[in-house]
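Your task
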Amino acid sequence: MRSSASTPNPTPRPLRLLVVLEGEDHPKACTGRRLLHRGLAEEVAGVHGLRPAPIVLDPHAHDPISERDRAAAERGGVLVVDCSWNRLAGRGRFPSDDDGPGRRERRRRLPFLLAANPQHFGRLAELNTVEALSAAVYLLGRPEDAAALLEGFRGGPSFLDLNVERLRAYRGRPDPDAVRAAERSLFGSEPRAATT
């Protein structure tokens, strides 16, 4: 009889990654399209109505992603809207925080990170789609999957290196308050920038 100590731990299945394409970028520069083309994510028409509900990356959400979101992400995945993050607020793409009990998805922002993509290298919180999804995957406890997601993208491999101290400080924090405390510790005060 085999003992339980000799039973290998099953590898968790990859997180489901969902992309809503707005079509604002040149197709060759759009990292969301490239993720879809490579079969690393699936395209969906919108945020609402997905079941099980995903974690929705929203740069204007109050709460940052934390360990508390892991179970929901493992059930429903992580969704990103591939568009100009600076224009999300006025588009009605996301519900407001006061949308009430009918709102089912969890909207979360990423904690403060630096971009490594060529267009915004070194800028706070100006991540492209693949960087945003990779950061979320890392913070949800899958650093190897996060690194694999970035392979083949310009600036991709350097994203995790550039943010290693921040990612390690945020990862495993039990709730949004603990993540915000880590942000304050790293930056001295909460930076004023939209996050992806």
